[in-house]
From TrEMBL:
The keyword Isomerase applies. Keywords: Isomerase, Metal-binding, Zinc. It holds the Pfam family PMI_typeI_hel. Residues 343-388 form the Phosphomannose isomerase type I C-terminal domain. It comes from the Eukaryota. This is Mannose-6-phosphate isomerase. GO terms for molecular function: mannose-6-phosphate isomerase activity; zinc ion binding. The lineage of its organism: Eukaryota, Fungi, Dikarya, Ascomycota, Saccharomycotina. Belongs to the mannose-6-phosphate isomerase type 1 family. Pathway: Nucleotide-sugar biosynthesis; GDP-alpha-D-mannose biosynthesis; alpha-D-mannose 1-phosphate from D-fructose 6-phosphate: step 1/2. Binds 1 zinc ion per subunit. It is an enzyme of class 5 (isomerase).
Amino acid sequence: MHEKLFRIDATYQQYEWGKMGSSSAVAQYAAHSDKNVKIDDTKPYAELWMGTHLKGPCTTRPGNELLNDVIAKDPTTMLGKDIIEKFQSKSELPFLFKVLSIKKVLSIQAHPDKKLARILHAQDPKNYPDDNHKPEMAIAVTDFEGFCGFKPLEEIAEELSRLPEFRKLVGEDVAERFVKGIKANAVEGSKDDVANRKLLQELFGKVMSASDEAVAEQGAALIERAKRSPADFTQCDLPELLVRLNDQFPGDVGLYCGGLLLNHCRLKAGEAIFLKAKDPHAYISGDIMECMAASDNVVRAGFTPKFKDVENLVEMLTYNYGTVDDQKMKPEGFERSSGAGESILYDPPIEEFAVLETTFKKSTGVRHFEPLKGPSILITTKGHGQVSTEGTKLQAEPGFVFFIAPNTAIDLEANDQDFTTYRAFVEAN
């Protein structure tokens, strides 16, 4: 029988949008946790994966045993009977926990819900490797910016009225239909709201189906306008953003489907957003903790050389629209902990995961956590301390990752006020 608290080694992914070499938190964590990892400053380090997903499962330290195999030997102890029954697995966690270090914009993307994921996986397992949905939450560790959800429709209508390049790309008839047809203050689910979503779908579909030649031509004109006449844009930060994104992906359709249609989101450290299935988003820059249902399904729209499934994307989106604040998480206190430091709970409206952030900014000492009803993974991101349970006490340093079995009380002891941890967990309530 394995211990109920033990260290694991995460895996890292070197996608080209990641921060380079030792400037990446992902590289720093991987190398500090595993001395065999040698950072190559000529290569990007994008994601640190903590979980049991087959594309990058964790291994035990010491022993180098797959976490999946450890769980499979004693699933009731490692997952809990209720979690096994709920998620129908005796070897895998229902969530995937990550650190992301972002230098270059990720692809504009959305993730299918469970029903669509099963269909896409059956039809095209190469591009859709999982049959599961992928709702996700991002918590900013440093200042972060991204795209999240469609803008309020009135803002999009004003952009169509002010930017001739936008109208030319979608056509005057579609632009006019959108500007004149949208209904302000529509109640969600009402006839007006349904009509608004259909207009938004038509507009988005026109952008995504525009020819490469039209996108390149109108994109070049749009960037010229952003440089010479920034006052033509409705948002003061939009011209600079478009120019910056165009430097990364010249003449890409993402300038329109992202820059002009989606909310530009800025988060300070500690702020979080929740991204539901079928809602478009993209990360632009910063370092984040990300947690999601255990899936790697992505339907891409722009800012990517990878496979773009325009037909499925246009058809699948919810076409929710609104402000960034609609998608921000409201952190809560965590009553099942006590002592020094502070714990904040980020609890999205889904079953697969929640995340606890624990800091000791005011004083060092010990914070106690009552047992959780499911498994969890904890990572130290700053400072030094220890994580312990009855009979086991382990050093916790930046990049050190731990698995904690269900029904296991733990203590976090801070050696300094920088000591910071994030803990992803699941419970079958």
